[in-house]
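Form 7-S
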Amino acid sequence: MGSNIQTNFYSHLGISILYLIAGIMLIGGNIRPSLGTLYYLGILLASFLVIKGYITRAGLYSFLTPYFLMLGFGIWKYIFPHYIGILLAVLLGELFGRISYKTLIKWEGTRYIFCVIPIFFFLFDFAFGNIPLLRNIHMIPLLSPISTHYFTIRGASLVGRHLLLAIITLILSSLVVIITEPKSAKIPSIVLVVCGLLIVIPNIFDLAISKSKVHYDKTLRVAVVQGSYNLPGDNMLYEDYIENKLAYYINLASKETADIVVFPETELGIYDTSNKIDKEHRERFMDISKKLGGILVFTVTEGNSLTKEKKERFISTLLMEEGNIKGISRKRNLVPFKETKFYSRGKDYGIHETKFGRLGISICYDINAGTIRKLKSNGAELILAPFNDSGFGEIYHNIHRYYPIIEAVEYGVPIAVANEDGISQIIDDNGRILGELGYGHIGTLDYLINLNTAKTLYLVIGKYVEWLIFGGLFFFVGINLKIIRTPFLFH
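Output:
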C-alpha cells in the first residue's frame, strides 16, 4: 500500500511539473518576444494533459501559477500599495485553479473535453477586458505573448481579440485530438478547418467596410520621441525643471522633418483654464510649434489656478499646429491609487480636424479601456498615443506593447506610440509594426503612414457578437456545471 501511495505521489508530481512547464511556455513571450512561439507549445501540452485525463487540482494550479505570479510581480506590485497586489494575484490563482479543476472534472470523458480550455480562456479574457469593475483590475491579456505574430493577430480584425484567443486554443486542442485519438477526430477536424479559415481569410481578403472605393486618403510621416530626462540636482526649481525637460525632448526631435511629432506622456508644462499662471508655458509651446512646424503633441497638467479643485485637474495633451493650440484631450482612464488620487477623468472622445487628417488622442492607459474604438467610430484616421511606462519594469513594457497592436488590428486604424522609456511603436492599420524603439532606448522613430477611413467588420458588429457569445457560454457553462451528467447534453 505504501508503494502505491508513493507511486501515486510521484505520478501527481510529474503531472504538476508538466502543467507548470505548459504555464511557463504560455507567458514566455511576455518575458522575451522571441519566446512567443512557446505559447502554442504550452497550449498543446496543457490540452494533451486534459484530453488524456491527467486532470489534478495541483496540476491546474501549477498551470495557472506562472501567469498569476507574473501578474503580481510584473504589474500589480506597481499599482497596489505594499504587497497587496502580489497577495491578490496568488489568491486569484488559487480561485481560478479551483474553478478550472471543477469544470474539467465535470466535463472529463465527454467528446467535447477539448473545448473546455478555449471556453475558459475566452470567458476569463473577455470578462476582465470588458466588464467595467473587472476591467479596472488590469489583468494580463492572454494573447499578449504573441502580440508580434502578425499573421495570427490579423484574425482579430474579423472576430476580435477574445474570440481569436478561443479560436487559436481550439485549433491547438483539436490538433491534439486528431493526432492522439484519430477515431474521435470528426468533430475536432471540422472545428480545425472552420477556425483555421477565420484566421486565414482576414490575411487574404480585405474585409473592411468603406463609404468610398479608396480606403487610404492620405500618406504622411509621423515621428515619436523616446527618452527619460534625469533631474541633474535636488535643488532645481519647478519652472527650471520643466523648461530643461522640454528642451531635452525638443533636442531629440530637432532633426525630425515629420508632419506630426508625438512626445511621451510626461509633464512638459501646465495649462491653466483660467489663463492666469501659464503664459510662459503657452508661449513656449507656440514658439516650439512655429520652429518645428507640422503638428506637435505635448502632455501637460491642466487645471484651474483660481479654484484649484481636483474636478478641474486633468492629465491632458495639447495638439499644436503652426503655433496655435489646435485641440486639447484629457486622459480618460487613470492609474488606480496614483493618478486617481490627484486627477479627474476626461470624458470627451472627440477628434481633431487638421490639415493632415482627422486625429484622435489616446493617453497611455486610455488604450486599455475602449478609447480607440470610440475615437475610430467618431472618424479618427490616425491615433497619436503618448505613453509612460517608466518605473514598471521590462516585463510590463513587453505586455503593454500588445494593446496598440491589437487595437490597430481590431479597428483598422494606425497608431503612433511615444513611450518615455519604451516601447515606442509606429503601427499601421493592419497591426503591422513598422518600427519600434526598445525598452530603455533613446531617440526618435519616424515612418510613412497611410490614413485609413474604412471600418473593420469587428468595429461594426464585433462587440455585439462577442457579448452574445459570452452571455450564451456563461449561461451554458453555469447550467451544465449542475446538470452535466444528464445524458442528452453530450450524447
